[in-house]
Amino acid sequence: MRAVLFFAVAGLFLGGAISFQKQRAHVGVVVLLYVLGALALLYGVSLL
């Protein structure tokens, strides 16, 4: 059940990263969101 929560959080981070990228936001912000999304995904997978 907790894994689903982390997948949802990862989706939010990755969705935010993609939308920031389209708005030409600062590269550091986009990279940070991608990294946080990837970490949340990996943690969600490890909970399965």
List unreliable stretches of 5+ residues: none
Q: Count up the domains.
A: 1
Q: What share of residues is helical?
A: over 70%
Q: Determine the structural class based on helices, strands and strand pairing.
A: mainly alpha
Individual helix count = 2
The whole-angstrom Rg is 11 Å
Shape: elongated
Largest sheet: none
- How many β-strands, per DSSP? 0
Mean pLDDT: 90
Could you spell the SSE succession in H and E letters?
Answer: HH
Give the percentage of residues in beta strands: under 5%
Distance between the termini: 9 Å
Keywords: Membrane, Transmembrane, Transmembrane helix
Structure, explained:
The protein has 48 residues and is mainly α. The chain has one domain. It is 88% helix and 0% strand. It contains 2 helices and no strands. The chain has helices spanning 2-22, 27-47. Helix 1 (2-22) packs antiparallel against helix 2. The protein is elongated, with a radius of gyration of 11 Å. The model has no long low-confidence stretch (mean pLDDT 90).
